Structure to design on (244 residues):
């Protein structure tokens, strides 16, 4: 992020850290260092989440994303540890996860849930709010590896979490567009926002994703003010550290 800011004056790029094995998993020190370097966001595990690994194992090889095959091969070679679970046998959140949340709260970072299971998502959101994290994002709750019910999404929104609605899963057929629109309508609009989840070579460029998503929302009957709120207003709050 710092390199891009220097290379392109006038463009503000915000840093982030994702708690996969590459940074030590549930590593509060990695979050501390990232925060001091200017990172604004912290994601809980994605490709290394135990929930994600379990779900991928059930898919035939041809249905798995490219990265899933890579991670499976690395694990078989012993290059990476076992997938990361957030809960102890008792169902309590692991101390390392809560330590991460304390660091994020102290630095006023946005915490996103990553590719966790339903139970883990609820525990992380609950603990994040207890620890004083200013803004919490439920990462693509509609995605097949999360697949949170509308009732679950409503509860999380009522707790104060933001619900991330991504372009790529619907564009690639993993989440039907109508299911995505129905989820937005079933939850408070002010707790929803739009992102792209793009960056894959076979998909549209990242910079086009928000425009394409906005068009889809307008075609589905959302008005311009609602679309602007989800595409601009909430992301701006998250980026600038606005009130929860």
């Amino acid at each position: 992020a710092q390199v891009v800011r220097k290379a392109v004056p006038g463009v503000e790029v915000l840093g982030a850290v994702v708690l996969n094995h590459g940074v030590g998993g549930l590593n509060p020190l990695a979050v501390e260092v990232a925060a001091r370097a200017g990172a604004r966001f912290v994601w809980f595990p994605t490709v290394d989440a135990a929930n994600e690994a379990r779900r991928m194992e059930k898919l035939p090889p041809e249905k798995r994303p490219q990265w899933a095959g890579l991670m499976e091969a690395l694990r078989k070679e012993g290059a990476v540890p076992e997938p990361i679970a957030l809960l102890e046998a008792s169902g309590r959140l692991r101390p390392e996860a809560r330590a991460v949340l304390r660091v994020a709260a102290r630095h006023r970072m946005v915490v996103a849930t990553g590719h966790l299971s339903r139970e883990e998502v609820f525990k992380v959101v609950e603990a994040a709010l207890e620890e004083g994290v200013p803004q919490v994002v439920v990462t693509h709750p509609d995605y097949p590896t999360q697949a949170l019910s509308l009732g679950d999404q409503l509860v999380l929104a009522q707790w104060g979490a933001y619900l991330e609605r991504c372009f790529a899963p619907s564009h690639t057929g993993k989440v039907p567009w109508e299911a995505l629109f129905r989820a937005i309508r079933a939850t408070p609009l002010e707790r929803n926002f739009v992102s792209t989840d793009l960056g894959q070579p076979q998909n549209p460029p990242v910079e086009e994703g928000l425009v394409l998503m906005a068009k889809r929302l307008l075609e589905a009957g959302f008005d311009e003010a609602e679309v602007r709120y989800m595409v601009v207003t909430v992301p701006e709050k998250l980026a600038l550290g606005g009130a929860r």
Notes: The longest helix spans residues 224-240. The mean pLDDT is 94.
